[in-house]
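quick one, two chains, predict together pls
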Amino acid sequence: MELARARITRNGTRSLCYDALVLPNESAIETVGLSRRYGRRWALVDVGIAIERGSSVMVVGRNGSGKSTLFRVLATAIRPDQGTVRIEGFDSKTHRLEIRTRVALLSHYSYLYEALSALENLQVIARLMRMPSSRQDLIPFLARVDLEKRGDDAVMTFSAGMRKRLSLARVLMQDAPVVFLDEPYGQLDPAGFGFVDRMVEDLIRRGATVLMATHQVDRAASLCGQGLMLEAGRVVGLGSAEEIARSSRASVEREELRSWS
Amino acid sequence: MELTASIRKELLLQWRTRAQFLAVLVFGATALLLFSFAIGPDASSLRLYSAGFLWLALLLSSTLTLAESFQSEMENRAFEGLLLLPADPRGLYYGKAIANWIQLTVLGLALVPVMVVLYDAGTLRLPALIGIILLGSAGISAPGTLYAAMAAQARAKQMLLPLLLFPLIVPVLLASVKACSLIILGDPMGQGSSWMMLLVAFDAIYWSLCGLLFERVVED
């Protein structure tokens, strides 16, 4: 069993750590030997990471490298086949509800009801989370993603970018200390990119632990302190966001050269 | 709290997609009409089998209603989004099951006048008939919601739901048909109440057991 794991600290230093040395209250996210498969194909293989509270981590990798699967396992949307996950000290096998009070996931899926309006979608979430759910309480969240004028329109009339913004509003509402953003820039226009940047900056300022999977590597590197690179479900790179951005660019260039030759 | 929020969400979704309910109602009425062709024009035979055909029509319609109740949940994986909230999955289940129960009861009540017209099966014991429809619908909606959640994640969902559901609810169907027949045809031996008690017993088992199993069914 591999005890050594990649560890990310707030100041961006990387090191190897051992189970016995990691105190539960230090790390926001810890995984040991995390593996997950779909049928016969392993999407995550022996992923071991420890991420300190308040860190902001850019997660990069090609399509199918395991970024979304990693986020879905960490957010308890799916179970790992092997290994353990601890979020804020809680084991994902035994304390799913506790973890769910602490994490918010912006997924590839919008998690929205097409037949309901933007405001009604947020009301469903607010009521289930026992939060104030009146129009006055929720309009500010829509305003933060520039959707306050479309609050009463059904989601089925929204463009892909508007849906993404509404999903971002949903994440903001959850006010979680650990936030997973899977392709937050996807489908957004340049103004939407600005929303995401401000949102991430705001989350970091609040002390939330933010993991962001994106192909907008340069943009994410300017926001995040650290970076993590996945390839075929394995962690292949770890370091400052700038280092990982450089590695990612080099990897893309290598791929392009290979495809031309 | 979660239960109330869940019921509100389900009823709102049902209201927004009410055209589908009308389509299911037309389907149920059409099924009743087609069943009457199998009996022929004999009034006493029509009346004799009316309760059975009412429940068959309701059962067939219920597979559409139950499957549809998870359609909107699967469109954008909205239900997964709800499961990721710090909410008890049982609250989500009971909210959906209660909303399905209400919808099936309304459907059953709406099919009664169609049955009366087509099968000449009128009765003055309406409160008892409503009671049986309430109990029978509850017996279909509790396991139906659980199995619809399972089937929604499968590829052959249209086939899977009736395959899973129909064998399980045979006792409910039998008790509902018997109790309904006794109301329409007369109950000189006073057997109706025992069939209703059987329905209550099955409902209690289904509603408690399905609530416990739901989390295991929907979690990954």
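Chain A touches chain B at residues 75-79, 96-97, 100-101, 103, 105, 107, 109-116, 120, 124-125, 127-130, 154, 170, 174 (CB under 8 Å).
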